[in-house]
Model the fold of this input.
Amino acid sequence: MHHTNHFYGHAHVFARFCGLDGRRPPRINGYLQHGWNALDGFGPREKYVPVTPKFVWSDAMRRRGWARGRRDYYPIGAPWLYLTQLEPAGPQEPREGTIWYPFHGWERQHVDGDHRRLIDEIREVEQGPVTVCLYWLEFGEPAVRDLYERAGFRVISHGARGWMKKGTDPRFPYRQLAELRRHRRVASNRLSTAVFHGIAAGCEPAVYGDPMVLAGEDPMHGGVARIRRLWPELHGAEVDLATARQIAGQELGAGCLASPEEIRTVFGWSGETNDL
Done:
């Protein structure tokens, strides 16, 4: 199994959905999209074994991939939508405040931006309590985390996504779902996976503030300008919720969800036994 299939516990969610042991997902026969982007859900320079399936979230991702000359796409819906089926919302206290996701880097690329400026923008816009969720790398940097804590924000991290099938926190998506369901708004300085997850979890979205810069950002993505041009409706301190839900459904693949039997078949899990 390609190691990115483990990111954020996505393979674990699918294993549970299929009635298998969610702690030890079987090998997926293909590449599983692990995050949203403005291309086809995968990295612009990634190399693939020919004719190996690419499991993407939506038909929109498939079409964008085909436009780049790639093939072998299977839209199956985002792991997040399967998780919300497995973890239906129960009785809740009224939602309150905003969960804010600053744009983050990853193990090989770091973000260059002014967190103090972003804090000022958050204070100017948000009403009520603010939870700032940092990627595990930034959360582990006191110089960054302390800035948000001193600003009076609650600062959290959902956990580590893992790397080379080591350090994956399978509870990552469960923590994110619980946090999103307790907040009224979800916001970020870039349109991102977390924003779409928040919309699907019932939050009112917002995208505003200094978008920051990713070191060595690949120009094939078109950068922030392309994302703003393609999805202008999702940018701003206030966004039309009905429109946001429609777009989120398209990008997350709400119309592409498969049954457990179908997932078992396309993942190559048909012969796996139920270990639960």
Q: What stands out?
A: The first strand starts at residue 31 and ends at 32. Residues 98-252 form a domain with the Rossmann fold fold (CATH 3.40.50). The two ends are 22 Å apart (CA to CA). The chain has two domains: 3-87+253-267, 98-252.
